[in-house]
Every structure is written in C-alpha cells, then in structure tokens.
Write a structure and sequence with these properties.
Radius of gyration: 16 Å
Number of helices: 5
Low-confidence stretches: 1-10
Number of strands: 0
Largest sheet: none
Shape: globular
Mean pLDDT: 89
Number of domains: 1
Structural class: mainly alpha
C-alpha cells in the first residue's frame, strides 16, 4: 500500500512546513483548551492572569488555524499557504506592539512567516 492510497499527498518543502505548523497549532490548541490555567501560569507565559475561558477561546483559534493549515497541506493549496504569510506578519506586528512577553511570540510568528515564504519559494523555483 502506498502513501497515496491512504490519502496522503507527500512532497514539497511547503507541505512539510505547513504540516509541522499545523500539528504544532493542534498541540497548542489541545493544551490551552484542556489545561487553560496551566497555559496561563506557565513560566514566561504571555497569558499570565488571563481568565481560563479566554485562554480556551485562544485555544479554539489555534484549533481552527491548525485544521486550516493541515487541510491546505493535504490539498497542496499554495494560495492558502501564501495567504498565511501576511496574516502572520500582521499578527507579529500587533503582538510586538503589545510588548512584554508578547515580543517573543511576535518573533516566533515572524520566523514562521519567513520559513513559510522560503518553503513556498523553494517549491516554486528550485
């Protein structure tokens, strides 16, 4: 049985990057939805003092984005993948302006936008 027979579409740097980001987001979603107080009280957490319900809503956003990333990976939808780059950069800008520990999250978002861009360029031109 080949991987194609079970519905997996392999190949491309962008697919690998977006699959990894999608899995990370789903893990983040599970953690923040199931253990909101732990996520909010994690050392250095940007969510310190945030009510559990709010942390869980953020987790639902991660669930939606993780699902979106994995679906775009499965469909090899490079337009959707490319649209995530400006979205991440806008998120990074907003988070950086918030200051505090959100600056680290902004740096992560920026780095993921760069990695995604590089993967999309690699697939297109290499």
């Amino acid at each position: 049985m080949s991987l194609h027979n079970i519905g997996l579409r392999m190949g491309g740097a962008s697919s690998a990057v977006f699959a990894a980001q999608g899995v990370f987001l789903l893990g983040n979603a599970a953690y923040t939805i199931l253990y909101p107080s732990s996520a909010a009280n994690f050392p250095g957490s940007s969510l310190k003092g945030t009510p559990n319900g709010t942390v869980q809503c953020i987790g639902l956003t991660s669930l939606a984005l993780g699902t979106y990333y994995l679906i775009s990976t499965y469909q090899r939808d490079t337009l959707i993948m490319a649209s995530s780059v400006p979205s991440r950069l806008v998120a990074a800008f907003v988070m950086h302006r918030a200051g505090g520990s959100w600056v680290q999250v902004a740096a992560f978002e920026t780095s993921m936008a760069i990695v995604a861009s590089a993967a999309l360029i690699w697939d297109r031109y290499m």
